[in-house]
Specification:
Chain lengths: 154, 293
């Protein structure tokens, strides 16, 4: 499956790079004009932009490069992926766009999950400048870490 | 002004070499049943700190006079005793009421400004509102770097190093964040996590924490028929910290998650751009990616 995907990606990329080359589309700062589509967005049909690793478009498809796929609507919102091809194999897949307006994808990436105390961002009381915590009363403040920090800066 | 020089915790500062931290200056005052601390980079000068603290204190005191249910003669107390009606109250009262009702809607009832006995209690939003207003005033005074901590809820601007005095190891002009620690609800002398506020563009500026067993948090479980605080009732969270772009959002959502439990936690992370660290009743942690190492 992975090999098929890589091959079809490379082929599709090459074909569309060629088309892009002929239509003379200007893309970003590479000087290479191209449009490509990635294997992950089968059937989408439309073209995304490509930043080829080398100047020659045809050579880039063979030698490798970075190709952005078209934007695909999913139930989690708009998705766009970018692949990196080296010597005809996909070496990296990166999400360029997960969503615009739909919050579903934020939900997926930002949901609170269980974790161990050793896994949270650690802090030493001597190394922080302020202390967060549920409201302390004026009396409780006197023995609080915040009071210690304030005392050092008073 | 509290004198904090001979506190037991003051000793811990001595273990840290002074030059490794930005030089800061702080002032504190008492209001709303807690202590408010304003911290500025030393480069701002002491006069500026004194003036800024006076502005913040006046603002807090003014809001406390109107909204405190601990003051029998406050507008909020008279409203609670039905001596006056909401339409006849001050603009501040009506505006904050409207804000609170908006939050009740947005949190599907988890944040509720009305107690189960029907008394309007805006305590859950007044402190956040006061911090926000104070922050606006400090910016208007021209302060760029500050850290305002009101009883454990924090709003920052800029950087602790936004001064001519640059701490060791930090390049001049660097966008160093304020380092906040979050207390362990099991042992308030230790920290359970850290979080970096401000410093660079796009960083969250506010961190609010609510607990289920704290006086002044005024949290009751959504749908509860009695005045039981969640601490003594069914809350699955001992403590919830929320980092957001603004302190009112952070404060209200922290309160809402303590009251609304897991469903509200998921709704909050789903619907707002926030980071959450929640401590379950048994001490286990739930956290969004921003709180991970």
């Amino acid at each position: 499956m992975r090999i098929r995907a890589a091959v079809s990606a490379a082929l599709a990329s090459a074909g569309i790079l060629l088309a892009g080359w002929q239509s003379g589309t200007f893309v970003e700062d590479t000087g290479s004009a191209a449009a490509s589509t990635s294997a992950g967005t089968a059937g989408a049909g439309s073209s995304g932009s490509s930043t080829a690793g080398s100047a020659g478009a045809g050579a880039a498809a063979k030698a490798g490069g970075t190709y952005a796929g078209s934007v695909v609507k999913t139930r989690f919102g708009a998705v766009q992926v970018q692949i990196t091809v080296k010597a005809g194999s996909i070496t990296d897949v990166e999400a360029l766009q997960l969503t615009d307006d739909d919050r579903k994808s934020i939900q997926i990436s930002n949901r609170a999950a269980p974790l161990l105390r050793a896994e949270v961002l650690a802090a030493q009381s001597a190394d922080v400048q302020t202390i967060g915590g549920a409201t302390v009363t004026s009396d409780a403040y006197l023995n609080s870490l915040q009071a210690a920090i304030d005392a050092a800066n008073l | 002004m509290l004198r904090t020089s001979d506190l037991p915790g003051a000793a811990l500062q001595e273990s840290v070499p002074k030059e490794s931290r930005p030089t800061l200056q702080a002032r504190t005052f008492n209001c709303m049943g807690t202590v408010i601390s304003l911290t500025l980079p030393s480069a701002s000068g002491e006069d500026e700190l004194v003036a800024a603290t006076a502005v913040v204190e006046r603002l807090f005191a003014g809001l406390d006079e109107t909204f405190s249910l601990y003051r029998p003669e406050s507008e909020a107390s008279r409203l609670a005793r039905a001596e006056i009606k909401l339409p006849d109250t001050s603009e501040d009262m009506r505006r904050l009421y409207a804000d609170a009702v908006g939050w009740r809607l947005a949190t599907e009832g988890a944040f509720n400004p009305e107690r189960p006995d029907g008394v309007l209690d805006l305590s859950g939003i007044v402190k956040g509102h006061a911090i926000q207003e104070a922050g606006t005033s400090l910016l208007a005074l021209g302060l760029r770097g500050f850290c305002l901590n009101a009883g454990g809820d924090v709003l920052v601007s800029g950087s602790p190093g936004s001064s001519s005095v640059v701490p060791a190891g930090v390049a001049p002009g660097s966008r160093e964040p304020w380092r906040a620690g979050i207390v362990d609800p099991e042992d308030r002398r230790t920290l359970i996590a850290g979080y970096r506020l401000g410093g660079q563009a796009g960083a969250k500026l506010a961190l609010a924490t609510s607990g289920s067993a704290e006086r002044g948090d005024h949290i009751w479980t959504a749908g509860a028929g009695s005045l039981l605080r969640t601490g003594s009732a069914a809350s699955v969270f001992r403590q919830v910290s929320v980092a957001a772009a603004d302190i009112v959002t952070a404060d209200v959502l922290a309160t809402a998650i303590v009251a609304g439990g897991l469903p509200m936690l998921d709704r909050a992370t789903d619907g707002w751009d926030i980071e959450v660290l929640a401590v379950r009743a048994g001490g286990e942690l739930l956290a969004t990616p921003g709180f991970r190492r």
